[in-house]
Every structure is written in structure tokens, then in C-alpha cells.
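Hi Y.,

Following your request, here is the sequence exactly as I used it, all 115 residues.
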Amino acid sequence: MFGKDLTRRSGACCELCEASGVGLSVYEVPPIPADPDFEHCIFICDTCRDQIDHPKRRVGDHWRCLGKSIWSSVPAVQAISVKLLSQLQTDWSAELLETLYLEPEVEAWVDQMEL
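Below is the corresponding structure, written out as C-alpha cells. Let me know if you'd prefer a different format.
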């Protein structure tokens, strides 16, 4: 439903890892509202989706891309990036989180999110 708008916003790249030339799909960032909401949707590649959906398959080095996406101007991208970083529990992810300032509404979103 939001595909064209997400393609424009993302420049046809994964909004987390910036992969281009790959299949992208809409991902609703939790908590998912009852009605579809563009503000809760991001465009991500199959690799990111698979690792989000299957935490045991997460490859830490893939998520180094979050060092850039945590600074996104899109609140949904920023919120899921911060949540993923906090779950990685590595030295480099902890350092990134220490340098981060979040707007109160994004911080509240991260606190409510379950992945």
C-alpha cells in the first residue's frame, strides 16, 4: 500500500543497511497500530528482515550499518536501529548507543518495541 512512497523515501535502498539492487519489502515497526500507518513502515532487504525475524541468525558485522541508520531522520528507522543495537550487546554497539541522543517520542517508541 505504501510501496511507492517508501521507494521514494528510501531511494530504492534498504533503510537499514542501504543495500541496493536487491528485493525490498515493507516492514512494520512494532508496536504495530491497528490501522496501517506510513510512519510505522520502513523498506528493508531480505537479509535484514530475516535477521530481525530470527534473532539467532543475526550476524553482528551485518549490523554495523546501524551506526548510520540510528541517525536517520525517519523515526521508524531510528527506533528499530536503536532497538537492534541494544540487543546486539557488543562493545561497538554499546559505544554507539552511548553517543546517541533520542527525541523523547523515539525513545518511548524504542521502550515499547518488542522484537
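The chain has a mean pLDDT of 93.

Thanks again,
Q.
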